[in-house]
Amino acid sequence: xxxxxxxxxxxxxxxxxxxxxxxxxxxxxxxxxxxxxxxxxxxxxxxxxxxxxxxxxxxxxxxxxxxxxxxxxxxxxxxxxxxxxxxxxxxxxxxxxxxxxxxxxxxxxxxxxxxxxxxxxxxxxxxxxxxxxxxxxxxxxxxxxxxxxxxxxxxxxxxxxxxxxxxxxx
Length: 170
Fold this sequence. Notes:
Layout: E1 5-9, E2 14-15, E3 20-26, E4 32-37, E5 44-46, E6 50-52, E7 58-68, E8 71-72, E9 77-83, E10 94-98, E11 109-115, E12 121-126, E13 132-134, E14 138-140, E15 149-155, E16 166-169
Parallel strand pairs: 2-9
Antiparallel strand pairs: 1-3, 3-6, 4-5, 4-7, 7-8, 7-9, 10-11, 11-14, 12-13, 12-15, 15-16
């Protein structure tokens, strides 16, 4: 009978971990093993546990087969998984680049702003109202006479929301 091989421990099918460790066993204690990482890779001698370090994001296929008396397992044990990009966790920072004068008679105000990251979405608030979607070069009109406070915050593509909005009072 040909030998049989089983993978006992392997990485999760979808992970951001860049190191992968596999433990495996064969149908005989006298078995030796050969492993391959990826579909087209050639089998090479290995032992359990087998570790691969510093893997790049992408799809992987681990193959392992036991060998007894020169006979290799005709159906190697397989494990497919994906290493995904590590989540980006840094929130963007918004800067106001144009705003009205601190004291003005105008009942309209134009604000321009930029963020420390590309591809962000902005949300603006006037005088403590709820934040709503906005874009740079926003014009606020029909403002009442008196003090006002404008705030803007950015959310990046990873969903990180700026914790402290950029703020300006006039």
